[in-house]
Design goal:
Number of strands: 3
Protein name: Mobile element transfer
Structural class: alpha+beta
Shape: elongated
Strand content: 15-25%
Radius of gyration: 12 Å
Strand order of the largest sheet: 1-2-3
Distance between the termini: 23 Å
Bound molecules: zinc ion
Largest sheet: 3 strands, antiparallel
Organism: Streptomyces peucetius
């Protein structure tokens, strides 16, 4: 398994990716799906919503 810490998810490598580089720096998150759906958010609350959105998308995605 290869660990690529700063690689954002793509349609080829779907998933959700959250980055928090420093305590005083807002978290950022991105997700990408096989179907082409993507999302990004900045700030802890927004990233939390983004992750929830991604989990919800996995349940509703037409390209499962
Ligand atoms: Zn999808």
């Amino acid at each position: 398994m290869t660990v690529t810490a700063d690689l954002a998810p793509t349609a080829d490598q779907p998933g959700v990716h959250v980055t928090k580089t420093a305590r005083d720096f807002p978290a950022t998150g991105t997700y990408a799906c096989h179907c082409g759906a993507t999302g990004r958010a900045k700030g802890e609350d927004n990233v939390r919503d983004l992750v929830a959105e991604w989990i919800d998308h996995r349940n509703t995605c037409p390209h499962r």
